[in-house]
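Continuing from the previous page of notes. For each protein in this section, the sequence appears first, followed by its structure tokens. Read the first protein now.
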Amino acid sequence: MTIDTGNTAFMVLCSSLVMLMTPGLAFFYGGLVGRKNVLAIMMQSFVSMGWTTVLWFAFGYSLCFSGDVGGVVGNLDQAFLRGVTLNTPSPMNNTIPLFVFIAYQMMFAIITPALITGAFANRVTFKAYMLFLTGWLLFVYFPFVHMVWGGGILQKWGVLDFAGGIVVHNIAGMAALASVLFVGKRKVLDRGPHSVPLVALGTGLLWFGWYGFNAGSEFRVDSVTAVAFINTDVAASFAAIAWMMMDWMNAKKPKLVGLLTGAVAGLATVTPAAGYVSPTSAVIIGIISGLVCYFAVALKNKLHLDDALDVWGVHGVGGLLGIVLLGVFASLEFNPKGADGLLAGNSTFFFKQLVAVVVSSVWAFGFTYGMLWLINLFTPVHVADDVEETGLDEALLGETAYLEPV
């Protein structure tokens, strides 16, 4: 193997950027909840950095990218990174060491289940969360990575997902919806967001890290990398402004939290399309995502669903929307290895994207609901009423974020 030092250095940088997104998510969610539940939700993100890495090293990577079992999951040939040497090339770019590819994909595995935690904020026991984290990775995340990126059935069929519209956002969002329906509402009214500056800091870290998330998914430095980079920024920016304008019209004031949430919605929505569409299409995707995700959150509120931090409305709807809009706007002109979409006359590709959205949504929702039901047989998923009243930080962790009274 001949190592391309430029591409390798770029992918090490992108891996670091994606790693930074999980602490960013912790700050984003931590600022949105009340003062007595800050550490509990941040813990759920940070513990994923540790435990998901353990699972990824042991068998996660192998189940995603080694071999193929029925088109659904890989095998255990590379469990504990068996057989991986200094000279083993990456499957996506043979001028990059496999170790770098393993690390990059591991960062995706870390943040994806952490996204779900915003949906059941302030009301899930830590033991149940650890079981959920393990089971969800094993039965939802790892199979979809293999099916879409690891040589599985959806990839072979021609489904495209540049950086995780299905693999990250749609399945996490649908899992969030299932979690909300199973776990139920919070008994204690939350007074969040307790710190909008923390939300802004988290958004900044997420936005910054997302360049590695999307541009890095080209696995080399070329023109497509550049397109993915600019598409990421313009979609986030237009979505942020669209969401802010909706807030301004309805609440008569522009809201910073709305602007920040809109940016995240745009980032999530453009993720599957970033390296397959033109910047003009990314602008349209951003505007649509800002508006549609705004109304999805409004619908959630109208239905009184206690998705605490709008994971379904932002990531679930955003991921779904991004996969569908990729089916509309994809262009071989901007990525010869991609496909033409509906606007270029390719209705077959559009249909495949629709099928992929339905399959991933049903799978993620069904498995998540079933896993929570099973976990609840062994250990309570919802915290006791007194724990919710006291706050999860003190009751579950024995720590508090702030010295003054809550």
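Done with the first. The second protein uses the same format. Note its length before scrolling.
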Amino acid sequence: MERAQKEAVVQNLGQIFADSGVVVVAHYAGLTVAQMSDLRNRMREAGGGVRVAKNRLAKIALEGKPNEGMSQYLQGQTVLAYSEDPVTAAKVAKAYAKDNQKFEIVGGAMGETVLDVSGVEAVAAMPSREELLSSIAGILGAPAGNIVSAVTAPAGNLAAIAQTLAEREAA
């Protein structure tokens, strides 16, 4: 790899570390090309990405970043799973590790916080951004639905009373 290529890789990795809500570091020794493609596809569908890079270049890219402590996990054959959403990459990586024994999560970072394996699993257990937004929308919509019910209830009651009176007169 030429120097210019290495500089481009370091710059790309620096962008990943700076822009991602979460970065998960995992060992992938023994994964086949098909299994790695499956991981990439799962991550892409969820809105994240997967990057394999030389540990030395990744450590250079981490220098001076708030999550520089993550460099302790960059040993052996490592793969980086990342996403802008703070939980997506952790969820996908945890699910993939559950399905494949050769994929082992070793740590990661969420913003400035460096995570160990249990930290990544805790992040994976959190609700995703979309789940939180849908919960908030449901919570915000409930009072409006209650107001509509309260406003329309008297009219419904009057209609029921009128129908009962009409039935009595007919009988």
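What the second structure shows: The longest helix spans residues 129-170. The chain has a mean pLDDT of 84. We return to this in next week's lecture.
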